[in-house]
């Protein structure tokens, strides 16, 4: 009797394990939608900071600190969506994103480094260094878009 129960339990466990694996695999279309959503949110929280850094909007340290925290997370979320399985999904991503993975990885590391500098500057409360860090992060964003994103 215990052998039968063990056999049934083993079969259920294996079946559940296989099902969980299938559920964990996200469709490429969903990955693209998620990375695009993360980038839209990045724009929402980054563009006001760029306006402040360029003097087109008044500097607000509270907004800068809040948005820095959001962006520190958002900037990392989008990169998960550049899985090779998304290569065939319609988007503005250029083929070089997948064919020159070393260059793409370097752009990612540059963006992360610039965002870390920005977050540190925002926490310091120094307006001049924060504005400079915002501009540097904007250049990193633009550099990646120039190299890996189709123009509109």
Range of helix content:
over 70%
Number of domains: 1
Sheet with most strands: none
Output mean pLDDT: 88
What amount of the residues lies in strands?
A: under 5%
What is the correct CATH architecture?
Up-down Bundle
Q: How many alpha or pi helices?
A: 6
CATH homologous superfamily?
Cytochrome c/b562
What distance separates the N and C termini? 68 Å
CATH topology: Four Helix Bundle (Hemerythrin (Met), subunit A)
Q: What's the total number of strands?
A: 0
The structural class is mainly alpha
- The CATH class: Mainly Alpha
Report on the structure:
The chain is mostly helical. The protein has one domain: Four Helix Bundle (Hemerythrin (Met), subunit A), CATH 1.20.120.10. Helix content is 76%, strand content 0%. It contains 6 helices and no strands. It has helices at residues 2-24, 28-53, 61-77, 96-99, 101-124, 127-148. Residues 19-23 have low confidence and may be disordered.
Briefly say what this structure is.
The protein has 152 residues and is mainly α. Helix content is 76%, strand content 0%. The model is unreliable at 19-23 (pLDDT under 50).
Question: Which features characterize this protein?
Answer:
152 residues; mainly alpha; Four Helix Bundle (Hemerythrin (Met), subunit A); 6 helices; 76% helix; 0% strand
Per-chain topology:
Elements: H1 2-24, H2 28-53, H3 61-77, H4 96-99, H5 101-124, H6 127-148
Helix pairs in contact: 2-3, 2-6, 3-5, 5-6
């Amino acid at each position: 009797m215990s052998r039968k129960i063990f056999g049934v339990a083993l079969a259920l466990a294996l079946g559940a394990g296989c099902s969980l694996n299938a559920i964990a695999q996200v469709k490429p279309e969903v990955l693209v939608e998620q990375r695009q959503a993360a980038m839209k949110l990045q724009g929402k929280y980054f563009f006001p900071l760029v306006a402040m850094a360029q003097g087109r909007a008044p500097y607000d340290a509270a907004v800068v600190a809040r948005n820095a925290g959001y962006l520190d997370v958002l900037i990392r979320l989008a990169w998960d969506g550049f899985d090779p399985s998304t290569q065939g999904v319609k988007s503005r991503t250029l083929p070089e994103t997948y064919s020159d993975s070393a260059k793409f990885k370097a752009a990612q590391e540059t963006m992360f480094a610039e965002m870390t500098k920005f977050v540190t500057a925002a926490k310091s409360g120094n307006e001049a260094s924060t504005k400079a860090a915002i501009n540097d992060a904007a250049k990193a964003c633009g550099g990646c878009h120039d190299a890996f994103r189709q123009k509109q």
